[in-house]
Amino acid sequence: ARPGSVRRGRSGRAGPVPHPLLPAGRACLSHTEPRARDGRSGKEEEEEEEGCYRLYPGHIPTSPLQKALLAAGSAFMALYDPYRHDMVAVLGETTGCLALPNLRDKMKHHPEGYRILQERPRIRLSTLDMARLRGLPDGSLGREYVRFLEENKVSPDTRMPPKFVDDEELAYVIQRYREVHDMMHTLLGMPTNMLGEVVVKWFEAIQTGLPMCVLGAVFGPVHLSARKLQVLATELVPWAIRSGRNANCILNVYYEQRWEQSVESLREEIGIFPPP
Fold this sequence. Notes:
Shape: globular
Strand content: under 5%
Helix content: 40-55%
Strand order of the largest sheet: 1-2
Structural class: mainly alpha
Radius of gyration: 23 Å
């Protein structure tokens, strides 16, 4: 029988035929079928049906083939235009199936990381007291973070929410990674130009293992001049790699509770060597 048609069981009662692509026991009514069972409204049953698919707000379920196509397309666009942050975000989500669980496990086995997973803090303008951060002493994490945002004209609200990660907890992990990216710029002392982004990507590639970071670290330098390539190869990349290997997991730091701490002492605590 076709999906959505009606057949009669042994009891003689009519019921919907489960869709062949849905898991057993989780079949949903078709959109064209009347929705008045058990006294529930059509809207309530439609919301229940969406719950069979969506794991969190904005989630878009995709098959492995769809993820592969999205990864290929987003990789091409990100290499063509590294400032296409939407394509970089899609690439990170569709290729992070191995790295994200590893990052989550690191967080679960660390006291501060575990608290972050439980409390799910967000770094957004709505959660930041910008006036307070501006009033902190020079050299503190909070003051230098705000200085970085203002000098580079960037906002934490530009970080895209995850869509293609098929696990609610892993979706938060990649969201957290995105929201502390500017914190990495602050701690590493790198601007948002192409040279700075490549250096940060080398550090993050070592730290996270995300293929998106590796791709950006390897292919980002094609957009640099010969002089900047020389500085990158001889000074910045070796420093970023050493720092990435030496540092503790960057997702295990509750940055929102470290605003008063000096950048220098936080670098030392995490294991980041002073910038060259």
